[in-house]
Amino acid sequence: MTVSSAFQAWQTAQAAAKTGDADAARQALKEGLAAFPEDSSFRNSAGSLFQKMGDMEEAETQFGKALALKPEALDIAINHAISLAGLDRHIDALAVLQRYEAEGSRSALYSSTRGMVARGQGNKVEAARWYDRALALEPVRPKALHGRARVALERGETDALAWFDKALSVNQGDADLWLGKAQSLDVAGDVVGARAIAESLVQQAPQWSEGLRFLAQLRLASGDRDFTSHYGDAAERVPQDPNIYAEWCGILAGLDYHQEAANVASRGSVLFPKLEHFRLLQATYIGAAGDSEQADKLYSTLELDTPERRLNEARHRIRRAEYSEADKLLDTLLTSDSESVAAWALRGLLWRVTQAPEAGWLHEQAELVQLVPLKRAGEVLENIIPALHRLHDNSPLPLGQSLRGGSQTRGNLFDRHEAVFQQLGDAVRDTVEQFRQSLPGHDSAHPLLRYRDLDWNVAGSWSVRLAGGGDYHISHIHPQGIVSSALYLELPEETENEDKAGWLEIGRPPPDLRLELEPLRTIEPKVGYMALFPSTLYHGTRAFSHQQRMTVAFDVTATQTC
């Protein structure tokens, strides 16, 4: 095709995109960009079309080049920031937007985008401020209302439900807004109202994983024994969607229903024979359920060569004491992804059971595991404990977590609007910084010490309340962080018949691995003290028979990788 103008190239690309011919649309854009490389408007339009077609990398490239050609264009800067945020590059997006703040603060679109970027960074206070600014300029701007409602829910604001109602008044067809309203009703204690909306969402969009998962959470909290049966109903209604079966497996396995998860995976494998992933899931879950022979047969039929397969087959080989094979799988996985917390956690257990000298380097160096006093504990704890109890009184047993009984607070605890949670977050950050500085020196090969000299962030904070007589944490890891934690706020008293009741065990393998290894360390909790340790260490809680145990936990991440 000979391109006579940028407009012609744009028309050709747009027409192709409307018919669903993405390849022809990309070709037309490519030819137009080659013919008219200095046309900032065309590059901006091309970026928008790439974005609509799901090519976020190319969209960001074109918006960036368009902005370089026309740096005074606020609309292009906003588009560039949105594309960066879509790639989870929120810091870069903020840097773009900050250059236009004087002009942009008079724009509802700019202000709403700043709110979106701040929320993506985890700065909910700034997000609320910018969304409020956008709505002051344009009170019924749908995306600003949506974002503000989500921030209200995430911060635990008492008017979250009102925000969702306001957002729905201008956008009744947004399923995520209805989900947010249901979540707000659940937080407010209106479980009946929340469930009615969740059931309606699942009926209208049976393939939507967020709706399916939320209904499962509500059903679990209400004591439904078969709390995932609606996944089966959804699968019957949308028989062509394999994701329903995959999600269904994960929900069941997350609460140790491994045999049931394997049965669902088996059904998925029959219905979708070309998707090897279901045989991998079946092998994974049936192995965890105890049938190593069947799992072995399934693994032997797989041609799938993915990190997930290597990780789960390594677990299987460890169960069968086939340590050399497990080591090869983990070595391959860590060669391609040296930051895999789950792989390092298994490697640590493997090195211990084979008595490899590297085991000491990985997890037994001095100061890697510490119990340290919380900074300013005297100022913080008096008010935080009753505030947490109020949250727990209406908090459920969560899906897919290590809890077996008890309750876990919703959302990110340190994002909440109440001052006591901000004070606790500040004290935790200061304590974590002291821990970072006390660690052994930087070691580029070590999964934690490679981050020793970077800036650390506290993320994913929550509180857990366990009651004696059956509530406990199974041995688990937190694969999203580099350091894991437990801040002790209330503890049960030991009795004569209970040895180390409620103590933290660090380094004991999960039961499904069938390894006879004792914990590397057991920590006696102390109120106002915080256990900090590498996220590559499995950890769990000893059972206790009476009273309550309440903690705050969080993950630590680094601002960049190396």
How far apart lie the N and C ends?
45 Å
The multimeric state of the shown protein is single chain
Pick out the low-confidence regions: none
Gross CATH architecture of one domain: Sandwich
Question: Using DSSP, what is the number of strands?
Answer: 11
CATH superfamily of one domain: q2cbj1_9rhob like domain
What Rg is obtained from the alpha carbons, in whole angstroms?
26 Å
CATH-defined fold name of one domain: Jelly Rolls
- Report strand order across the widest sheet: 1-9-6-11-4-3
How would you sum up the global shape?
globular
Pfam families: 2OG-FeII_Oxy_5, TPR_16, TPR_19
Protein name: Tetratricopeptide repeat protein
Keywords: TPR repeat
InterPro entries: CHP02466, TPR-like_helical_dom_sf, TPR_rpt
Main traits of this protein?
562 residues; Jelly Rolls; six-stranded antiparallel β-sheet; three-stranded antiparallel β-sheet
Description:
This protein has a 6-stranded antiparallel beta sheet with strand order 1-9-6-11-4-3. A 3-stranded antiparallel beta sheet has the order 8-7-10, with no helix packed on it. Strands 2-5 form a two-stranded antiparallel ribbon. The protein has a domain at 370-558: Sandwich (Jelly Rolls), CATH 2.60.120.620. The longest helix is centred in the last third of the chain and has 20 residues, at 419-438. Helix content is 55%, strand content 10%. The protein has helices at 6-18, 22-35, 40-52, 56-69, 74-86, 90-98, 101-104, 108-121, 124-137, 142-154, 160-170, 175-187, 191-204, 209-221, 229-237, 243-253, 258-271, 277-288, 292-301, 307-319, 323-336, 341-353, 358-363, 377-392, 419-438; strands spanning 370-373, 403-404, 407-408, 456-467, 472-473, 483-490, 504-506, 521-523, 529-534, 539-541, 548-558.
